[in-house]
Amino acid sequence: MGHPTARALLRRLAVEQAECRVPSLTAAIVRDGRPVWFGGRGRVGDDAPSAATQYRIGSITKSMVAVVVMRLRDEGLLDLADPLERHLPGTPFGHLTVAQLLSHTAGLTAEPPTAWWERTPGLPADDLRARLGPAALKHRPGRRFHYSNVGFALLGELVGRLRGTTWLKALRTEVLDPLGMHDTTPRPRTPHATGYAVHPWADVVLAEPEHDADAMGPAGQLWSTPYDLARWAAFLCGESAGVLCPGTLAEMREPAGVEDGDTWTSGYGLGLQLARLRGRRLAGHTGSMPGFLATVWADAAEGLGVLFMANTTAGMSGTLLPDLLDILEEHEPRLPDEWRPAPADAGLLALTGLWHWGPKPYALRLLSDRALSLEPIGGGGRASRFVPQQDGTWLGLDGYYAGETLRVAADHLDLNTFVFTREPYDPAAPVPGGTSDWHA
């Protein structure tokens, strides 16, 4: 990264640290799977924070636990539609599904029925579940997004039951170690930042407590470093290192609920927060624990990740990461991949071009790996991509026809009963057919 770009990024970080009065603040940018910039301001003890300094990452822990749940699904050990009772019997919420817990649409209470769990020692899982009664269900399951730390405590116990170990050991073995995140730990190690609350009206700080959250650990226990969190950002961008198949990671990034009501700019997938921000589609998670704030976002389409970690309870601007991305885009925009010719099957090549659904024209294009794209000419209609299947059909990948089957006949395309023909309403085609009596 060029010096002017790095200087502009560092200045934005310095402004955040100074104006928001953050004891220490770090940030990093990942591009195409590798860190390309790191910045740190403030002090951790007598030293500047480094890429190896630990901070608590709070709810970013949830996304990592969710990856283990998805691995269990991919292995056939659970289905996302399974009721919790099938794998974790004895709770008052056995009818809630795994997918609802992952997406915060189960309707469960946000916090456990204990003292402020983030500032007090945690309870064992059995004790926590004994305190959870029917009143902990606040909304009809599936009705709306309602963030639930309790839901991820239950998912952590689910992981432990199915793996025959603790959620933490499963996470270490299946996710953290394969990704090289060896400095992501349940409790702090040296060097680490101390979590502080900054006085709202004076430049003094108060050290926040730090405890083992025990059963609530899957909701926000972990500590990490900018270096490790950069590896996590690269994973979210698609550098999966075999931890998760690309299709499953893409499934986690699909919106399952709207988080911000009528504005519809943020939502939640399966263990991942989602946002449409300044023209970007981002997936990741925020993290907040007493004394700490952190956020990691990934723009998978651009192969771009960005993160910050800070040791303050509150007070940051909320615009640091989008500002860093804007600076990068202004100074060093990504170059498009070079276009190169690619071989095409003659039979598929003959299918390309103009097709009609009734009177509406569509363009069929050939993509890589024998995939197809069917899009209305001029926009304003249903567009989807299709991937080839072994039986000679194509399966809808996205859009209105996601999951539907496209069949190619000699003179028409059959897309889940919709007939596409070369001419508008070709009278020789199957239903709806047409007539040749076009007139003024």
Supply database-style keywords.
alpha+beta, Beta-lactamase, eight-stranded antiparallel beta sheet, eight-stranded antiparallel β-barrel, 10 helices, 24% helix, AmpC-like, hydrolase, Serine hydrolase domain-containing protein, Beta-lactam-related, DUF7586
In short:
This protein has 440 residues and is α+β, with helices and mostly antiparallel strands. It is built from ten helices and 20 strands.
Helical content (DSSP H or I, runs of 4+): 10-25%
Q: Quick one: how many beta strands?
A: 20
Say what the CATH topology of the largest domain is: Beta-lactamase
- What string, H for helix and E for strand, traces the elements in order? HEEEHHHHHEEEHHEEEEEEHHEEEEEEEE
Explain this structure.
- The protein is an alpha+beta fold and 440 residues long.
- It has 2 domains: 24-331, DD-peptidase/beta-lactamase superfamily (Beta-lactamase, 3-Layer(aba) Sandwich), CATH 3.40.710.10; 346-421, no CATH class.
- It has 10 helices and 20 strands.
- Helix 1 (3-19) runs antiparallel to helix 9, helix 2 (60-74) crosses helix 5 (149-163) and helix 2 packs across helix 6 (167-176).
- It is globular.
- The model has no long low-confidence stretch (mean pLDDT 94).
- One of its GO terms (molecular function) is hydrolase activity.
- This is Serine hydrolase domain-containing protein.
- Pfam families: Beta-lactamase, DUF7586.
